[in-house]
Amino acid sequence: MAEVSYRRSNVLAVVDQLFVQGTLDGLLAAGEVSSLVDTTFVVVDLETTGGAPDGGGITEIGAVRVRGGEELGILATLVNPGQPIPPFITVLTGITEAMVVPAPPIEEVLPPFLEFLKGAVLVAHNAPYDVGFLKAACAKFGYTWPNPRVLDTAALARRVLIRDEVPNRKLGTLAAHFRTPRQPTHRALDDALATVDVLHAMIGRLGSHNVTTIDDAIEFAKAVTPTQRRKRHLAEGLPHVPGVYIFRAADGRPLYVGTSVDIATRVRSYFTAAEKRARISEMLNAAEKVDAVECAHGLEAEIRELRLIAAHAPPYNRRSKFPERVVWLKLTDEAYPRLSVVRALAEGDTAYLGPFKSRRAAELAAAAVHDAIPLRQCTLRLSTKTTTPACALAELGKCAAPCEHKISQEAYEETAAAPFRAATTGDPGVVVDALMGRISVLSDAHRYEDAATVRGRLAAVLRAAVRMQRLFGLTTIAELVAARRAGDGGWELAIVRQGRLAAAGNSPPRVHPRATINVLRATAETVLPGHGPVPSATAEETERILSWLERPDTRLVEASTGWASPVRGAARYRELLRKAEAQG
């Protein structure tokens, strides 16, 4: 065992000696083993001037490198903090200013300490305090903090020992409880050695908690619930690949569906202290199994997740639970058309806006259209032969009174119906200009609340128009093949038909992707054209595909027809929409 006295030269010598003996190289390799017996620990304790971690203030460092119960090296030195030591700190630790004046400053101690720490798990009692000072010093003097795994013996004691055993989790209390041969003295090396003994004593009790690896020990020290600890075996044996995971109840019912680029890692995170959601805790209590659906890449995983949620409506999924529940705002097919909120589109519907997630959103867009163009708002079916008494809107001059035949069918089509048709599939300028003019008039009259109401309606109709025209651009293409470079040098491939993902796959590196594309095309799902902007998939699925296609690194390989948007379409108002939504 290499030991160092409180002199600068010996601080460097301990690391040199470890290298000469070849010990450190062996430890680095052993650091990859996760069992507690084979894990290399560096147990650290600091003495400080008592201030906040600002890069200075450290008066002493003590560190012990251990593995398998054997001490492999010790690094200990006084440190010149570059600031006065408060009298109460001197009383507590016995470290005086005269002792630290000849000691090296922290910027000279950090390099050998970081070498000593390399490849090991850092252990400290109340670790956030010591780690905070070390990280601040590294940041101040330009050293890269290696971000080691950290095990806090104080936190571990809170999980291992019950209140009846010890009154608190102070280092001195724990050392006395375990009757360790070395007791803390408020000096760095003595406290580090005492922490080593306490660590070994607690490791001896972890076996009864089924904690045998360093990863388990670090998670065990955190605030993991009994349910998470009891059920974490559900994460075992899952693949490290992109895909979908399904938590199932004892009867096989899907409880929760999620997606990840690494199924095993994501599922394991549900059993760590980072997972604090109450509904997930409830779900884990009911879960008895986790199934994995491997996917070619992230896009396929996202789409499969959406489809599984839509098919099974898992009780613990909140988003995208009922993607089929949408409504549309359509122009009715009659002599004097009006707007109607419907749940589905028919083959004969030619002018419509949507889909909307709620009836309220559709009605808000309808209010915007009525503010901008003189579409009638009554719900009667009007006759071209007989008249119907007019309502109050006609008397107020807000309706052309087609019910009383005060406007011809041709004039009504030109002034009311045609602008709506244009706004849905082409240029919504007539609607936008009318609403912007109304906002300006209301603002000039200091009717700011009314202006805000109209602004909200403008955002609703623009949002729907931008979304629908964007969807139309993709769903009208019978087949589109796209590729995106994968991390291993190959290609992520997708075949999209009518806005629906029909096939997905991977082309291996250094192999032309054409062969894989041909196989995917031959085995892809047959997708028939339908009616509306999302005839073959949900709007959410098509939008996920659009987001993937619009990434800068995605390449379009083939398309049966051109992918385009209207030249003067709703997309040119994106900035206006952004401002309206921000102000709302």
What does this structure look like?
This protein is an alpha+beta fold and 584 residues long. It has 4 domains: 33-221, 2-Layer Sandwich (Nucleotidyltransferase, domain 5), CATH 3.30.420.10; 224-312, 3-Layer(aba) Sandwich (GIY-YIG endonuclease); 327-446, no CATH class; 478-562, no CATH class. Helix content is 43%, strand content 16%. A 5-stranded mixed β-sheet has the order 3-2-1-4-5. A 4-stranded antiparallel β-sheet has the order 14-13-12-15, with helices on both faces. The protein has a 3-stranded antiparallel β-sheet with strand order 7-6-8. A hairpin with a 5-residue loop joins strand 12 and strand 13. Helix 7 runs parallel beside helix 9, helix 14 (298-312) packs antiparallel against helix 21 (539-549) and helix 15 (359-372) packs across helix 19 (448-475). It holds the Pfam family RNase_T. Keywords: Exonuclease, Hydrolase, Nuclease. One of its GO terms (molecular function) is DNA binding. This is DNA polymerase-3 subunit epsilon.
